[in-house]
Amino acid sequence: MSLSDPWVVLLACIGGTFVWRALGVAVASRIDISGNVFQWFNCVAYAMLAGLITRVLLIPSGTLAETPDIDRIAAMTGGLIIYFFYNRNIFIGTGTAFVLFLCLTAARHFGIL
Amino acid sequence: MTIAIIGQSAAFRLGVRDGLVMPFWMVLGSMIGFGSMARDSGVSLGVALGASFGIWGLPGQVAMVELFAVGLPVFAIVVASSMANMRFMPMCVVLMPHFRGNPTAVRWRYVLAQMLSINIWTVFMRRGPTLADADRLPFYLGVSIICLVAGGLGTTLGYEASGLLPLYVTVSLVFLNPAYFVFVFSSVRQRNCIIAVLVGAVAGPLLYQITPDWSVPVTGLLAGTAAFIIDKSMKVPA
Questions:
Q1: Residue-range definition of the domain harbouring residue B63
Q2: Is residue B91 a contact partner of residue B116, using CB atoms and an 8 Å limit?
Q3: Pair B130, B224 in one domain
Q4: Does residue B231 lie in a domain region?
Q5: Distance between CA B31 and CA A19 in Å, rounded?
Q6: CA dist., res. B81 & res. A14, Å (int)
Q7: Distance (Å, whole) CA A81 – CA B21
Q8: Residues of A with CB below 8 A from B55's CB?
Q9: Are residues B90 and B12 in the same domain?
Q10: Which of A7, A94, A101 sits opposite B183 (nearest CB)?
Q11: What is the pLDDT of residues B105-164, one digit of tens each?
Q12: At residue B4, what are phi and psi to the nearest 5 degrees?
């Protein structure tokens, strides 16, 4: 089994992600949850995830990168309007954004747009 | 916040139900995308499934498969894949204290951390704190099992049937999960979380243009710290 065997790479990558999980567990067992450090970690976690998600939608990589920016923005805008209109219903908001995006990409595929 | 004791088997079923409402479909959609990408990159179905279950964090999986296809040295692949999944560190810090009241959960904490994904995290952060200490672990396991099943199913479907689905369907499935998270994070209630989401959402794409490789941790540190300070400086405590 060579070092570039996909299974070796996989095992190393599993370890590479587990390092962060384990580090988080180690910090969590020593932290005071009513203290400022915990609140700061909370802010870091939410900011990190929110930043990652808007980046994936606005500057995607992979297959999403092949779709026009305007399609993703239009689908999300439509979804957000419906989401707030229906009393912040996550299910309806996500469904609207998904259907809008599907319609837009399908319309481009069939040459309607 | 009212704490309800609903019993362990009821909590497990609640987890399964919460998992089936949205996360199952989100994970299924994004893992179909990953499965078809893994096939295009030339790795076996076994390795693709191993990545889904073992790495269990899409950015790290994508980095591994993409860079393996390019033929980068192992060390470079591992560093890139690991960096892409750095978010698990603050996610675990925020999650784990919810299990302190349950000795079984404390004993198995590294296993629970290995099972964690962003979909499980967001569902747990909404429901978990409202449950009694003993009910949180079965709830977490219920959600996690549903997500893991979706992960395995999606990876296999995407790998085996990637050619059968038209591209506009596959790309829409990939779009589904990040779109869902926009709504999940739009419904966050705690003031410091709302500020962190807003600052992070703006900072993420901007910082990505400055430093693509480091944008996730840098966004977390800068935007998270800014949100923390803004929240503290507001006069009325949350």
A1: 8-174
A2: yes
A3: no
A4: yes
A5: 23
A6: 9
A7: 22
A8: 10, 13-14, 17
A9: yes
A10: A94
A11: 999 999 999 999 999 999 999 999 999 999 999 999 999 999 999 999 999 999 998 788
A12: -105, 135
Establish if B211 touches chain A: CB-CB under 8 angstroms: no
* Substitution target from B89, B124, B209 for chain A, most A beta carbons within 10 A: B89
Q: How far is A50 from chain B (nearest CA, A)?
A: 5
Number of domains in chain A: 3
pLDDT digits (tens, 9 = 90+) for B17-73: 999 999 999 999 999 999 999 999 999 999 999 999 999 999 999 999 999 999 999
- Domain extent for A47: 34-59
**Secondary structure of B153-166 in HEC code, one letter for each residue:** HHHHHHHHHCCCCC
Residues forming beta bridges with residue B4, ordered by sequence position: B131
Number of domains within chain B: 2
A-contacting residues in B 140-199 (Cβ below 8 Å): 166-172, 174-176, 178-188, 192-193, 195-199
Within a domain: B2: no
The answer to ipTM > 0.90 is: yes
Considering the domain architecture, whether residues A9 and A41 belong to the same structural domain is answered as no
